[in-house]
Specification:
This protein is mainly alpha-helical. It has one domain. It has helices spanning about 5-15, 20-25, 30-35, 40-55, 60-85, 85-105, 110-120. Helix 1 packs parallel to helix 5, helix 4 crosses helix 6 (about 85-105) and helix 5 (about 60-85) runs antiparallel to helix 6.
Length: about 130
Amino acid sequence: MESSLQDLLAAITEERVLTPEVFSDIDCDEILASREDEEFERELNRVLTLVDKEWGDRDANDEYEEMIDEIREHSFQIASQATDEHELAGYIADDFELFARAIALELTDPFLESLWEAYENGEIPSPTSIQE
């Protein structure tokens, strides 16, 4: 995963992740259904809970909020424009917000890393694309 929020935003805006190729020939319904896999959801919710708890315990969250919002917005716009599928774009934006918060917290997790690796490999994370 990127080392700073600026690096994460640059990876998005410079199309190092979320490239047009990621969205070519994808089945949005299949991806959405696969993300409802029980184990995938359990791991994702575990990481979300961990990040949310750590985020809530921090004193200086406001300094990161603007950039995190920008990262979320850019990732949503790219996915939405490429697919016209707002539910999928929302999942992708959620993933990138999760990455951003984890970076700000300096938090690492194997499942989170596997989500990031899927994006780096030009895939939208799903149970079949992640490798723990």
